[in-house]
Amino acid sequence: MQTTILEPDDDLELMERIKKDRKKRIEKQTVLNSTKDREYLQDVIYKLSKVGQAIENNDLPSAGSVLGQTPDADWLKMANEALSKLSSSPEEMSEVDAFNSSLTSLYSSVTKNDIEASKSAFVDSASAFEKWTTLTGLVGQLKGL
Prior knowledge:
The protein is mainly α. The chain has helices at residues 8-34, 37-56, 60-67, 74-86, 90-111, 115-136. Helix 2 (37-56) packs across helix 4 and helix 2 (37-56) runs antiparallel to helix 6 (115-136). It comes from Lactuca virosa.
């Protein structure tokens, strides 16, 4: 293991990065606590739970009724606003993109009545959402994960 001596400038730079990261976390927490974003994200968890139960019971019509008619349903629009607002890194945005992509696949497979594709798309959607909550540090702030 190598030990590196920090120059005073390096130390200041490191402290500035730490302060900036802490500020971002506090801002996320404030946004989550002071707006409807928490409700929108909780709604995602609730809907994914209901969809997962329906798929597990091979009941794609019920899964479809929970999801709504199209991938631009109001609940998803509101959730995406919250996801975007609370995402500050490229990695977090990448998980938002993965979530949306897999959710579009889920809509498609449920509509086509394809149970295997629905199961796969559901797992991908839930995994991407869960990874996003971990990356953003919100995993402990939301119920049902």
